[in-house]
Design a protein that fits this description.
The complex is a heterodimer of chains A (about 180) and B (about 425). With about 180 residues, chain A is mainly beta. Helices cover about 15% and strands about 35% of the residues of chain A. Chain B has about 425 residues and is an alpha+beta fold. Helices cover about 30% and strands about 15% of the residues of chain B. The chains are: A mainly beta (about 180), B alpha+beta (about 425).
Chain lengths: ~180, ~425
């Protein structure tokens, strides 16, 4: 358990700087490279809403593409407590390194500080995980993308292109979180 | 004379019965299968392959196109599995299930890969009243595709259950026996596997024989007597299997036994992301509320199995055998995920990590040696090293038959031969 928490801390600290492997070129394909097309791509502020509400313990599979590089899911906890948000992608895809961002749905900006992010810290697993306390009655956005898109500061096309899976899981009962 | 030979055969069968509960491994299987195809001293009685029929995977495009029934095949009172009812259960094609889990398998891709007859479905213990039995035919569909000269099955399945009369049940099994006697004469067909009479000499699916069985199926099953169906699909990048079902008579989602009442219509088994291990956490969602003696879920995750006390671990290993025991448990008493996970747990937790505990477990089902030789309950094709939840269908192109299905088939044969056909 300590390993997991350590990994999370590492992932969180790396996530704002990380750019591992992102220089790898993706083969040119038939994606429209026009300015209009690029402008229409989703981004950190406007992820594609999947309309999927995650349920604790259930794994949802999806695919990120150069056109759809950010996905948003919803989660409404039934009870308050710690949960694990987990994203995993297939191993060996240089442009598909897991990146998760959890945002409290907070239109009134009562808690503007409440977002959590994690990027994959171990490319042998391509799994990233955020442990956080959630509150019953609140709603959370679970945003998935790949590390490349996060660091893709120029308005270029996304390069993430691959399958991944995402879930909200109950916290392992053996893990003790100090209050 | 006939009876004397039969008695001698049965003595031999009984002497080897001790081995029957243990799945066989590896190289012995081929020779065991060969040996099993021996003269049958009472060919008029049912064998396991007469009541549980697995269609081989086609090796030619022609056999693929003509050798399988589909949900849309015309049958009793309509189609085998009408889209109207299927969509009532799982929504329009592509509709995600609970929490974004995958849509139920698309009807258009499903093919009939197995058929099972049962004269007393979900019966536990001795049958005291035959008239109270639920006579049933179950059809197992899977998404099949034919590509590059071979058929491959998706990691999904749909089981459809049909209520039939005792006369239909008896007549159907008798037709299977007649088919065997006509083609194989007095040979025994051996343990369950892709049906030996459904293979051509080149190993392809025999469309002629398949068509005969199709006609039999279509004469007793269809929209008119469809009572329930279940499905499973994978998610979590092929590490999780999601189970649910629909009760046609109640027009409602099936309630899965032993689950919390507030969350009892879907259940999942998560194996974890490390190949060859069971590390899913949590392994089962929701967690079963079955009593300890019938609860194996601590063995679904190797860390939990390690952390368990020796006593509770031993109890969980015994629970594996209880869940596989057709006199102790039925689909009405065990949740789908636990039942389908027994074989992966035995292979990846029991054999690899706790072989002594596995060997020490007690309470395995023992087939009636009077009607089912030990050779017929061997696990001819052990499930592969991956996590394989297919109890009587295919993992990719590998036939997968769990001990639970073998035990059920043996119990059905004993019931049929002892109380119905052999009278």
């Amino acid at each position: 358990m300590n390993t997991r928490i350590f990994f999370l801390a590492a992932a969180l600290s790396i996530s704002s700087f990380g750019s591992f492997g992102c220089a790898a070129d993706q083969a040119e394909d038939d994606v429209d490279n026009s300015e209009d097309a690029v402008a229409a791509l989703d981004n950190i502020g406007a992820p594609t809403d999947t309309k999927v509400t995650l349920v604790a313990g259930r794994w949802h599979d999806n695919t990120l593409t150069p056109r759809e590089g950010w996905h948003a899911y919803h989660f409404a906890p039934v009870e308050s407590g710690y949960v694990r948000f987990v994203m995993k992608a297939e191993i060996g895809h240089a442009n598909m390194w897991s990146y998760l961002r959890i945002e409290l749905e907070d239109p009134a900006k009562v808690k503007p500080w409440l977002h959590n992010t994690a990027a994959v810290g171990n490319t042998r697993t391509n799994l990233c995980e955020i442990i956080m306390k959630v509150e019953a009655g609140q709603k959370y956005d679970v945003i998935t993308t790949s590390q490349f898109n996060l660091t893709n500061v120029t308005p270029g096309r996304h390069k993430s292109d691959g399958k991944y899976t995402v879930a909200v899981l109950p916290l392992d009962s053996t893990i003790q979180i100090p209050e | 004379m006939h009876r004397t030979l039969a008695t001698a055969f049965l003595v031999v069968a009984a002497a080897t019965a001790a081995a029957c509960a243990a799945p066989t491994d590896g190289d012995d299987d081929a020779s065991q299968s060969e040996a099993a195809v021996t003269a049958d001293l009472r060919p008029e009685l049912a064998q396991v392959n007469d009541v549980s029929i697995m269609f081989p995977l086609a090796k030619s495009k022609a056999a693929f196109e003509r050798g399988y029934l589909t949900p849309a095949s015309a049958a009793v009172g309509g189609k085998l599995l009408p889209s109207t009812i299927y969509e009532r259960a799982f929504g329009a094609p592509g509709t995600l299930q609970i929490g974004g889990t995958p849509a139920a398998p698309a009807l258009t891709g499903l093919r009939l890969v197995a058929v099972r007859f049962d004269p007393c479905f979900a019966q536990r213990g001795a049958i005291t009243d035959e008239s109270a039995c639920k006579n049933q035919i179950r059809l197992v569909f899977q998404t099949l595709t034919f590509k590059d000269g071979r058929t491959v099955a998706a990691d999904d399945a749909v089981h459809a259950f049909y209520a039939i009369s005792r006369e239909q049940l008896t007549s159907s099994v008798s037709k299977m026996i007649d088919l065997r006697k006509r083609i194989a004469r007095d040979r025994r067909l051996g343990p369950l596997g892709p049906h030996p009479l459904l293979k051509t000499t080149s190993g392809d699916l025999d469309v002629t024989v398949a068509t005969e069985i199709h006609a039999l199926v279509k004469s007793v099953a269809g929209e008119q007597n469809l009572i329930q169906f279940t499905q499973f699909t994978p998610s979590g990048l092929d590490t999780t299997w999601n189970f649910s079902g629909f009760d046609v008579q109640k027009n409602a989602a099936m309630k899965i036994p032993t689950l919390p009442a507030s969350d009892d219509t879907h259940v999942a088994f998560f194996a974890g992301f490390t190949p060859g291990q069971l590390s899913g956490d949590p392994a089962f969602v929701p967690v079963s509320k079955a009593p300890a003696q019938d609860n194996m879920q601590d063995l679904g995750n190797q860390q939990r199995a390690n952390a368990a006390t020796p006593e509770s671990r031993a109890r969980a290993f015994n629970a594996l055998l209880r869940i596989e025991h057709p006199d102790l448990h039925t689909p009405d008493t065990v949740d789908c995920a636990s039942c389908h996970a027994v074989e992966p747990v035995r292979r990846l937790i029991g054999k690899k990590l706790f072989p002594n505990d596995l060997a020490a477990s007690r309470g395995a089902f023992v087939p009636d040696a009077q009607f089912v030789p030990a050779a017929d309950v061997a696990q001819a094709t052990p499930p592969d090293a991956t996590v394989n939840v297919h109890m009587f269908s295919y993992k990719a192109s590998t036939p997968s038959i769990h001990m639970r299905t073998i035990n059920e088939s043996a119990a059905i044969v004993a019931h049929l031969n002892g109380r119905i056909l052999g009278r």
